[in-house]
Write a structure and sequence with these properties.
Length: about 230
Amino acid sequence: MEPSSLVACREDLSLSVEQTTDAKYNDLRSQFLSVRKIRGDGNCFYRAFCFAHLESILQNVRALDWFKERLIKSGIDVSSAGLDESSFKDHLTTLIEVVEQCQADEQEATLLKVFNEQTTSDSMVQYLRLLTSAHLQNHADFFSNFVEAPNLTDYCKQEVEAMAMECDHVDILALSQALGIGIHIVSMEGDTQDLVHHIIPEGAQPSLHLLYQTSHYDILYPRADPFHYVK
């Protein structure tokens, strides 16, 4: 990846993934064709999530319309969690404008260019962080059971809303629920010889596939049948 890239071009898996164990690596390569590297700046999950989802619906007019409408409505969710509109309105507008750019120009190159504009890219990440925080707080009865912190509000402000803070499993579930988007995470972690597959939320049909390795997320692209790996 170029030092300045927030989101890189796709690369063949055989050239770009660190080989932790031969078994895991071979398994990964049998299921996925390529990977897109994301800068490791603490925002990699949110950036990968947003890029991968938009890329997956880039030429689907109905899906883009639905996503835009869902984003517009999500502003109500963020407000209802007590966040002042001034703290998120500009970030939400940026994200909606990027979706509109996708509607006007269904080109991967355009999407890549936008996501590598630091101010625009970080603004989208910031909105997704605020939306995640809002969803956690709006469903505090459920999520407080899974947050290892004395106070859910403090956790959200310090660990979720702040840029460059790494994402936890509970945050991923909250964002997935907030936008109705299924996520498939392939983990290279652990001592076993097998890859670990997480579908979030459980039972969903994922629209994007992420590789988790050494506390970092990159985007994966499956071979012909995207669901043959799900066990």
